[in-house]
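Everyone, describe these structure tokens:
***
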Amino acid sequence: MPVSPPAPPILSVANVSKTYEGGFQALKAIDLEIARGEIFALLGPNGAGKTTLISIICGIVNLSSGKVTVDGHDIGRDFRLARSKIGLVPQELTTDAFESVWDTVSFSRGLFGKKKDPAHVEKVLRDLSLWEKRDNKIMTLSGGMKRRVLIAKALSHEPELLFLDEPTAGVDVALRREMWEVVRKLREAGVTIILTTHYIEEAEMMADRIGVISRGELILVEEKAELMRKLGHKELTLQLMEPLERMPAGFTEFDLALSPDGRSLTYSYDTNAERTGIASLMRRLAEEGIRLRDLSTKQSTLEEIFVNLVEERV
């Protein structure tokens, strides 16, 4: 059977740089492709260039060099077509406080030249648990509800690519989990999602791929599972039957740490090494007469990997 060619990416960023008038280079030769239907998390410290990159893709900021296409439409030459494919949920809560939820979402749809479609607006509001609030003025809503209104506005014109810039900033834990569920449902409906977040657990739970940006450079783009496999380390914690006063001699070849109370040893090892060294360690402990009560392992979190990556660039 003939093999079907891979589907073209919904977003292509090719060699994009941005230098501001004062000479500050916010982005340096960014290359990135986003597949249709994926959730992509863009991580980076403050000032790394996340918002600049999103603003360029959305046509808010002009690029200095390079090319951006959205569903095959150049963001410069075919601005209206490209922009109509994009929904943007900004970090700041920018809404008209005196408008009703229904009116502000319906108005956003009109801004993109879309015909009135009360059924679509109703669906968006119901999906975001805003239907009961449709006649409320924005000013009467909680912070979490206002953020939902921003998402509803971004979805009003039926975009295929949705940007969420810190979507759960300032939202309590319960509402944050609800927002995650909203994002999953959007993906199920065929919307491609790019999110920036300071909550690393958010990316770890939701994203298919992770991109890390630091000082204007995209230093890594990787499948989440592969990233955890390649850059993750594991720790083996050994609970001891009798506490040790000091680290025994003859264990220098192992990356071992003795707990302050002397009741446990922690062994760090590379998950990708040909040999983890665990068998040798256990054999050596038995030879030294060090008996174990229990043992457990812990995998690196995405947050630890992210911090290590960024620190290496400083």
Remarks:
- The chain is about 30% helix and 25% strand.
- The first strand starts at residue 11 and ends at 19.
- The two ends are 50 Å apart (CA to CA).
- The first helix runs from residue 50 to 57.
